[in-house]
Write a structure and sequence with these properties.
- This protein has about 260 residues and is of the alpha/beta class.
- It has one domain: Rossmann fold, CATH 3.40.50.
- It is built from 9 helices and 11 strands.
- The strands form 2 sheets. Strands 3-4-7-6-5-8-9-11-10 form a 9-stranded mixed β-sheet, sandwiched between helices.
- The model has no long low-confidence stretch (mean pLDDT about 90).
- The site of S-adenosylmethionine (SAM) has 20 residues, from helix 2 and helix 5.
Length: about 260
């Protein structure tokens, strides 16, 4: 399956593309992949998105993007969610294990979306675990996508896209599952992102995410408050996702972090 068969044009919402010219057949928007990813932020119409919080300013930095997996992520997960968030299940490898199995890669068909993929650690894991399916890594940060493009090069089934999670450039019911690791706290309007995820999932499609729940220590609480990190309680997430239309909500706590799973009916 081609990436184009999943897309809607971010400018006119058209769904026909001249794949030879890499352009929208309706409005002519240029859809050439540059720097290893397809930039679907229509800067000419809506302007360049500006980071709305301090964390996102760091996510736009080349230095942070390069050091993210080794330094930034483990440090902040430990600081904000305590040792249990990584140690008990082997750090990011354990987290990936939970995400991959919660998505049900072996039993379901893709395509799979790694929403807010950062430098692509989860995207690569999905690409390797589902070699016969298209895996799309999406992020809003150019710096993160530049690193992801270098690191995902060995996975021919992985495509990278720059877009805003609040307005996904994909057709209704186009994905078998959406993975969303550690990014819920970063969104201005999580409800809008949930609605978009529901829209693009096929009936029966799975949404798996991880985020910060209540901090296990006073230090974690203070650090989250200082960094302006929003936390989500399991009961809040359950009722939120159910109200929007998801079913079969489940979650598992890992220290002060939370992995949740829900299904589109
Ligand atoms: C903390 S990182 C998580 C990266 C990766 N999923 C992981 O778990 O290692 C959060 C990511 O969300 C992205 N992000 C923030 N706001 C976004 C938005 N509105 N649309 C898409 N991505 C966004 C950031 O650029 C950043 O790469």
């Amino acid at each position: 399956m081609e990436l184009y068969s999943l897309l809607v044009c971010p400018r006119c919402r058209g769904t026909t593309f001249e794949t030879d010219n890499a352009a929208c057949a309706s409005c002519g928007l240029d859809l050439h992949r540059k720097r290893g990813y397809l930039d679907l932020i229509d800067v000419a119409t809506i302007g360049e998105p500006t980071p709305s919080n301090t964390e996102q300013r760091f996510m736009e930095s080349d230095l942070v993007a390069h050091a993210y997996d080794r330094v930034w992520r483990p440090t902040f997960v430990r600081m904000l969610a305590g040792k249990g968030a990584g140690g008990a299940v082997g750090g990011i490898a354990g987290e990936m294990f939970i995400h991959k199995h919660s998505l049900g890669l072996d039993d379901r068909e893709g395509p799979w979306l790694d929403l807010s993929c950062g430098p692509g650690a989860f995207t690569r894991a999905l690409g390797a675990a589902a070699p016969g399916a298209v895996v799309v890594g999406l992020d809003i940060s150019r710096a993160m996508l530049d690193v992801a493009a270098k690191r995902c090069g060995a996975y021919p089934n992985v495509a990278l896209v720059r877009a805003d999670a609040h307005s996904l450039p994909f057709r209704d019911h186009s994905f078998g599952g959406v993975n969303n690791a550690g990014a819920l706290h970063a969104y201005d309007d999580p409800e809008q992102v949930f609605r978009e995820v529901l829209r693009i999932l096929r009936p029966g499609g799975i949404f798996v995410g991880s985020t910060f729940a209540e901090a296990p220590s006073l230090f974690g609480k203070l650090a989250a408050r200082a960094a302006g990190i929003r936390r989500f309680s399991p009961s809040e997430l359950r009722s939120w996702l159910q109200r929007i239309g998801f079913c079969d909500y489940e979650d598992v706590r890992m220290g002060g972090a939370l992995v949740f799973r829900a299904r589109r009916p």
